Each structure stands twice: as structure tokens, then as C-alpha cells.
């Protein structure tokens, strides 16, 4: 018995020693304010030129290669007489060097050049020049020489090297290029020892067989020295990570700037060549960032990885094996956009999957996307302890008690927070050079003090349809209310914004206009079915309850439009969509759909499918579409709508959810209603007047558009996009900062939904400026690009053409526009002084204001698997490719790993108090 007991104890001891240690997870875990997540830096302008893909680093040896400086101050020096300056037919303006011998061919040679400096580790020299002989001005003995002399010794003893070109056949008056290279080891060694040399271009006519006349221009020379190189392999778990976008940055006291970009090969290998040596107090870092060019979102890779960091790099050094892993970590629980109970008695458990990396540490982080820390200027966040995946569960138990260690964090029930995971390749507390990265996705979560009430059983659908409308009407108004979201939820929306409040006056108003046919379909909050109502002249709505369906499904919208056009015919048809909206063009959020992990939305492609499914297109068009949703007055939404409607009304910026019917129905049923353009312009005034009648100081944005004129604007915008992409690609160092500055200064719209323009509310003190809104005014952007000094001329021309079209009343799609500055949905002031009312998607690239989510949805579609390749999307990828984006988190995850920024309901008013409310 004692032997058995001893054996059991021994086995237990062995098993306990072999099993990983686990931390007790029963109680709430504390946040660790002393362990903040490291942030990627905000990059300064990129270097003047990318690194050469060779083992040499070359710099210019000549001053003034284009011969543009005035002769009196020119660095070009005549070493042998005969050379002068001329403005006659230079290769590049304003002038060239010119040599002409007299009728006797004297002088037989003439030399011009400069004294150049040479590095102690010189490896080679190379250069080129443009030259032109006058017609008939060469002979059989003519030569063009590149000569190197000891400084001040133009004699055979001072000659170090000579390269020559036979120019006898070149006397036809055409410009040619002479390229040369000096690599002889002995000559390079002599030049290296001297440190300086006279570099001459010599015209030689030794036999005086002709009277040479010669022009030289664009003379370039480069000295090259061995440079360092950095190389390694990018892995994704056990497999090579092919096509991984990589950035090399250098940081010093002045900040961080981009040095070069690269991409890994099929085997995951990468290399940065010609890397300059590091000066003191500076460092290099290799970064991975999620691709913008892959066919689909790369779900298996992190959002970014801060790779190997170097604080020393000598000239000519070759560092290898700078390897790292970019495999993603999968967020597991809770689900995206979950409402989670978090109390000290019932903790919310957050969990995620690990990776295969030995020695790694993981960290749970939670942040508030709408409130900033005054110390950092970034969203306030807290992170948990560093977890060892080999010994501890990858989880965080959160409760109000978790914030006891950080009382300044603005924890509140009912607010939407974001959580994500930071991965370190080793413990950053013991190694400051630890590499790190963020999970590709973040997830939205809202904390509750108690579970929400379970909705009751849905009511039984009612058979049949409302009675059809009699023919002969002037207008049919089809009202589609997608309110299975904040707009219909009594917890989040006041009565005036919910469907019953918005439509309350509609029955009585419809009775006053018997020449109108009015039909509504309302999807209210929860699984309560869809209510279809007709509004006859009797003033009593004729309604039927239909089975529950998603108002974000294209078939639901298509069937409603088709039913309205068939059963309520009229001379003209208007469609009014009341729904949430967002900057990438998604609308009509249905929270009951998709199992509660964010619900479903209607993308622009699905909106077009709905229109086509209703039989619209070509000759069959709606006369007017009204989008009563914020942020849909964008070029993308209008382009998607144009094939199916003649006119549109939408808000590029703030919109208030108030029913406009007391002003809208008189427009459709009164004098002048036969003119859809006038009606569309009048709808702008109807919305403006409705808001003014309740609270005149509110900011608002609404405009009317003639969609028949949209093709011209679309062409101009594509030309502008192509011009921006070309300029920032060809001349990145000069043009990128200019375009970024114009974009940052342009009028923005509140794409983030925080009730501010490029600002974050601070936890304490005044708001903090941050480039967090992804939607800009197209006209103001073009105007700023046009007026930017020193910008690329082709880009300037394209911007001017777009501005000219918008200023031309006969060509501009803008029929009417009201852009009023005032109070936002959060009570903050909004300025719309420079707004025209036509927006375009142009994020700045930071992890602020939901930009990663909006950008992913814009470039890859609702499902994240359809790469967009139109001109504007291609330009955005080029503009964002060299950004890391400072800020926390990543792409907000929606259903089934899709990118999701929830559509915003717009501003809502408690009309008896005039208090603005915002709910996301």
C-alpha cells in the first residue's frame, strides 16, 4: 500500500512538472497602465529617393548637372579654353555648354568640368551627358573624352583615367547620350587615395579635319561606395510569406521617416540593398504592413509587425537572418459587436488563439475610439498583463474591478469599445528591442450591467396586400425604412427618430394630396416582421404585416420597388430610403440578421442589384431617389445610383432623422411637380426647413444631383486620381507631402460619427486635433491641389479641370446644396464653410476614426474578397502603401471575418427638448 501511494505521488509530481502552469482566471484581471501597447510611428516624408537594388550606394558628384545656374555663379569651370554658355537650343532649359573652334580648327581640344570629392572607400564612378554636334561639324578624328586628373595637374603625369567616345559619325545635329563607367581597380585606388580630382569633359579634334561646334547638357556623374544590406525571411507560421509588403524606416530625434520599401519573394525572402550607415542616436526598423494589393484580405496575417530593429550599421555591413513571423492571432470571444454583461459578479471573458512562436508574449488591449488621452493625442486605451502562451490561457476576464488600477479610464455601460491583441516575439520588459504586432482585426464590444430582455415571439403575418392605387397619379412616393437598428430601438433612439415618429403625420398629409400615391415598408427593431402600408385619400393607412426579412437584403428592397411601381403607378416615381449610412457606401444595417454578430448591411453592389432586380435600368428609371442617411452624398454612391435614377438627394455630411413629409408632399403634389429637377432641388429646402423648424442651429448637409451629368464628373475625378497616383509614384519625395497636405487641409465630413471634424474628444480638456475622418469634399480637395505651389503640373491641370466643371452650372451635377455649419449630434461645433456637398473617400491612413475598417471595406468590398481596381481605388492604394498608421487596433471585424464599420444612424432629436443625441 505504501509502495502504491509512493508511486502515485511520484507520477503526480512528474505530471505536474511537465504540465504548463496556468494562472487562476476566476476573478477579474487588472489592467496594467504601466504596460501600454507600443504604437507604430507617424512617418515623416519619405527619403529623396529609394534605395538602389545593388550593393553600392551612389551620390551625385557634379553640382548643377542641368547647367541651369547663371554663368557668373556656375560651378562649371573651363580647364582648356573654348567653352562658353549658350541659350541656343539647349537639351534642357535654360542653357547649355558650347564649344566652337575657328576656321582653322583651333583649338584642337577644349575641356570643361569640376573638381569633385571622392570617398575613402570609393568603389566606382559612373555618369552620362547629352551632346550634339552641328550638322557637318565632325571629322574622322573627333572624340569626346571623360578625363580624371590630379587636382591642378593637366599634364600626362597628372592624368589618372580617360574614357572616350568616337563622335565622327554624329555630325547630324541630333542630341545623343554618352554613358560612361570607371571601375578599373588601379585607377579607383589612386582616386581613393587622392580624395579629390578634376573631372573633365574634353572635345578633341586632333587632326583639325573639321570645324567642330558642340553643345553639352545634363552632365551627370556619381561616386559609389560599398553600402550595407539587410536581408531575411518573412514567415507565416511554418510557411514562407510571399508578397509581404515591407518598409524600412529610420528614427532619430527628429522623428521617423521611410527609407525604402520592398516585398518578399515566393520563398519569403527579402533584401534591402544600399542601406546607408547609421549615425549616432538613430536606428533602423523593418516593418511588415498588411497588403493593399492582395486579391483579398489576408486573414492569416497580422495587421502589421514591427520587425528587427538595428541601432548600429557600419558602411558595407551585410546583415542576414533578419527573420520574423507575421501569422495572425484569431480573436475568439466575444463575437463581433457583442453586447456583453460585465459586472464584478459576472465577468466578461475575452479569448483568442495563439501562434507557434517560442518565447512570445500576448497582451489584451481595450480602447475607446471616440475619446483621446491628452498625453498622447490618441484614443485612450488600457492593456492587460503580458501572457506567456506556453503557460497561461490566452484570455482576459473583465469586470468593473479591472479598472481599479486605472481610475482615469472612462469606463461606462452602453459605450462601444474596441479590443485587440498585441503579440511580442519576446518579453519587452527585459528586451527593449522586442518585435511586436497587432492582430489584423479588432472587435467592437458594448458592456451591459444586465442581460437585455429577450424579444417576444414575432406576431403572425397578415395575408394579402394593401389595396392598389388608382392610375393617373402625378407621383408615387415609395418610403423604405430600414430601422432594425438604432433607428428603431427604444433604448437608443428618441420617439421622433423611430419609424412611428417619423411617419406619424403621413396619413393625414397623404389625404390632402389625392394626386399622390404613397407606400411605405418599415422594418422596425427586432424580429417583428415588415409592415407594408398604403396611404389612401381616406387618411386611414391600409397596412399588412409581412414575415420577418432583412431590410439589408437586396431582394427585400427590389421587391418593394417593383411592388410600388406595379400597384401604385404614377407619371413619376420617387424612392425615399431611411436608413443608417457610412463613408464606404454601406447602408441599411439589419441587426436581427446574421445571428447578432454585427448584423448585415447593404453594399453599393447590392444596392445596384436591388435596383436591377426591381426592373430598373436603361429606359426604366426612378425619377428621384432620396437617401435619408448620413454620408451618402458621395461620388461612389451617386455613380452606383446613376444607371437607375434621373435625380438624387443625399447628405455628404450630417443628417438628422426627422420626417420631412410636411414639406415634401406639397412639392410632389403641388404646382411645378411635373419638373423632377425642380422637385429634387426643392427637397433640399424641405430637409433644411424641417431641421430649422425644430433647431435652427444644427449643422446639416444636403444636396440635389442631376445624375445625367455625372459621367463628366466621373471622368474628371478619374483623371485626377490617375494624376495623383502618377505624381506620387514618379516623384514621391516631393509630391507625397504636397498631396498629403492638401488632403489634410481639405473640408472633411464626419465619417467617424463622433460629431467632430478631424478631432477626438479628450478625456479631460479641449478636443485634440487628429486626422480621423476619411471623407473629404471633392471640390475643396481639387481646389487645394490646384492651388498648391510646386505640385506636379499634370496633377494641377487635372484638379483645375475638375474645379472648372463643378463651377460650370450647365455641367455640374450639383443642382442645389445646403451646407450649414452649426451644432453636431454630440453638441460640438461643425464647420461646413468650404463644403460643396459632394464627398469622396480619401482616408489619411491612421488607425483613427474607423479608417482601417472603412478602407478595407472600400478596397475589398463587404466580404473582404473582391479587390477594387477603379481609378480612385488604385490611387488610394498607392497613397496608403507607404503609411503605417499610428493609433491602436485594426480592422473592425464583422460577421464571418469581414471588415465592418457599422453604418451610422445620423443625428436624432428629442424634439420637445431639442437635445441632440448620437448613437452608433
Descriptive overview:
The protein is an alpha+beta fold and 920 residues long. It folds into four domains: 57-226, Jelly Rolls (Sandwich), CATH 2.60.120; 277-452, Sandwich (Immunoglobulin-like), CATH 2.60.40.10; 473-707, Rossmann fold (3-Layer(aba) Sandwich); 712-917, no CATH class. Helix content is 19%, strand content 32%. It is built from 15 helices and 51 strands. The strands form ten sheets. Strands 1, 15, 16, 18, 19, 23, 25, 26, 28, 29, 30, 42, 43 and 49 form a 14-stranded mixed sheet that branches. Strands 34-33-32-31-35-38-39-40-45 form a nine-stranded mixed sheet, sandwiched between helices. Strands 2, 4, 5, 7, 10 and 12 form a six-stranded antiparallel sheet that branches. A hairpin with a 5-residue loop joins β46 (822-823) and β47. The longest helix is centred in the last third of the chain and has 21 residues, at 710-730. The two termini are 68 Å apart. Mean pLDDT is 92; it is low at 1-25.
SSE order and pairing:
Blueprint: H1 2-18, E1 43-44, E2 56-60, E3 77-80, E4 83-86, E5 96-100, E6 109-117, E7 124-133, E8 142-149, E9 159-166, E10 176-182, H2 185-194, E11 196-205, E12 213-226, E13 228-236, E14 239-240, E15 245-252, E16 255-263, E17 269-275, E18 283-289, E19 304-310, E20 318-319, E21 324-325, E22 331-333, E23 338-341, E24 348-352, E25 361-373, E26 378-383, E27 395-398, E28 416-424, E29 436-438, E30 441-448, E31 473-482, H3 499-502, H4 506-511, E32 516-523, E33 530-534, E34 542-546, H5 554-567, E35 570-578, E36 587-590, E37 600-602, H6 604-613, E38 622-628, H7 635-641, E39 645-650, H8 661-669, H9 676-694, E40 700-706, H10 710-730, H11 732-745, E41 748-749, E42 759-762, E43 768-769, E44 775-777, H12 778-786, H13 793-807, E45 814-820, E46 822-823, E47 829-830, E48 839-841, H14 851-860, H15 871-880, E49 891-892, E50 908-910, E51 915-917
Helix pairs in contact: 5-6, 6-7, 8-9, 10-11, 10-13, 10-15, 12-13
